[in-house]
Specification:
Helices cover about 30% and strands about 25% of the residues. It has nine helices and 16 strands.
């Protein structure tokens, strides 16, 4: 078990998180030799590991740490889930690095120093960032070599990055008066990929303030992490052998999740037409829209619950300049920050649709298509793609992130996010797609909502 004082994830990225306020190194305690990794599978033999070898734990003492609680509390007295997403992403990377570490790694690599928001770029880093780039890649060979050397000196040639967030499902609201415990393991391994399972729980307190010895699970997160070398070529990782009954159950679930992802990819609406039942639903929506248009002509507007909202009326966007203070250890933009920015836009989109406070229930199918470079201009576009207007009232919001070339205006999609919110409101207006593209978005949102088992 990792001690709380030794693992201070948040301070790596946000030094005012509420712990010491000082840049804190990330220590991979379970590996006595740190995390220097080779770039090819043949550089050294792979070693078999158990899920417990990659275990990482972190505490969030919100009830007793005033500074921490002030940093995370939102205007409703709950926890800012966007900041939790940053912590989840960083923990997933830490867990994956622990699994991929090797006993031959030298002891001087036992500490990984990540940049923090108050750490300025040095002269060499600034020069590399300003170097001529093409499609986000440094074209100056000397600058690229310096950048590779800088990264390798910290971690070795292997890169471990987030490929996708498969599912984060929340069972109750995160409140600022509850202490949270975040635990992560590698629970399934492919050839070059790892599934990281993160459990977040709390220890309830009774009316007298006594803490229960039994934890209550708050939510679970599943991340897919992949290993690459400096040329972005897949690298094999250590195999995994579960030991306990629980670990064997998680491994079996990892196999099921892999098969499920393959099935979802095969049935994607980008590859296949909707099913017969979905096509019938699309036709029904068309008929309802036509009937509603006739009814609207006779409605004097006195009933605010009448009618519906067209999908193209739910679109919002924000533009963000990616500053170097948000960089990760690879001098790209930290994936957790991208997730936080997308979530906050999705939440704004949901509350403007519902006119009531939305609560996050699930995060699905976050894909990292390509890295975001420092200094990039990123446009986030959000849209409500599905609404379940009956109890339980739920709203599905899709967010896409685009890297924009400031000189040419060319847009490259970098990320896609799906967020499911529940809302306690007297009523919700129905969502109405009009075009075929919107119909496909609607069907996709409906599929996600059904997978979360909210409808």
């Amino acid at each position: 078990m990792i001690r709380q004082a030794a693992y201070r994830v948040g301070s790596l990225w946000r030094p005012t998180l509420g712990y010491s306020g000082v840049r804190t190194p990330l220590v991979l305690l379970s590996s006595p030799h740190g995390a220097r990794l080779q770039s090819t599978a043949t550089a050294r033999p792979l070693i078999t590991k158990a899920p417990s070898d990659s275990y990482v734990e972190k505490y969030f003492p919100f009830s007793s740490d005033n500074a921490l609680r002030a940093r995370y509390t939102n205007q409703f007295g709950g926890i800012r889930f966007g900041l939790i997403l940053e912590d989840l992403d960083l923990m997933a990377a830490t867990v994956a690095y622990k699994h991929a570490s090797h006993p031959e790694d030298p002891p001087e690599r036992s500490v990984i120093q990540l940049p923090s928001v108050d750490e300025p770029l040095n002269k060499e880093e600034s020069a590399m960032i300003l170097s001529k780039k093409k499609d986000g890649q440094i074209t100056d060979p000397k600058a690229a070599e310096k950048m590779a050397h800088l990264i390798n000196s910290k971690l070795g040639p292997m890169r471990i990055v987030t490929a996708a967030v498969n599912r984060i499902e929340l069972y109750e609201e995160l409140r600022a008066d509850m202490d949270l415990r975040m635990r992560g393991w590698v629970t399934f391994v492919g050839s070059t990929s790892m599934e990281v399972r993160i459990l977040v729980d709390t220890f309830p307190k009774d009316a007298n303030g006594n803490t229960s010895p039994t934890a209550r699970n708050i939510f679970i997160g599943l991340f897919t992490m992949v290993a690459r070398d400096k040329h972005d070529v897949a690298v094999k990782v250590n195999p995994l052998v579960p030991q306990t009954d629980v670990e064997k159950k998680w491994y079996a679930l990892g196999l099921e999740n892999k098969a499920s992802r393959q099935q979802l990819a095969a049935s994607s609406l980008e590859r296949n037409p909707p099913t017969d039942a979905e096509r019938a639903l699309m036709h029904q929506l068309y008929l309802e829209d036509h009937a509603m248009q006739q009814q609207e002509k006779q409605n004097d507007g006195s009933d605010p619950r009448s009618g519906y909202v067209y999908m193209d009326q739910t679109q919002y966007q924000t533009t963000v300049l990616m500053h170097p203070q948000r960089r990760n250890i690879y001098h790209k933009i930290f994936g957790g920050y991208l997730m936080r920015s997308a979530f906050e836009l999705a939440w704004n989109t949901a509350i403007l649709y519902c006119h009531a406070r939305p609560l996050i229930r699930a995060v699905d199918e976050i894909t990292f298509l390509r890295p975001v470079e420092l200094g990039s201009v990123v446009i986030y576009e959000a849209e409500v793609i599905y609404v379940h207007a009956e109890d339980p009232k739920t709203v599905q919001v899709k967010v896409e992130a685009f890297n924009v070339d400031a000189k040419t205006g060319h847009r490259t999609r970098t990320n896609e996010f799906h967020f499911t919110f529940s809302v306690d409101a007297p009523y919700l207006k129905e969502l109405m797609p009009r075009t075929y593209e919107e119909m496909l978005k609607y069907i996709t949102g409906r599929r996600i909502m059904k997978s979360v088992k909210l409808i």
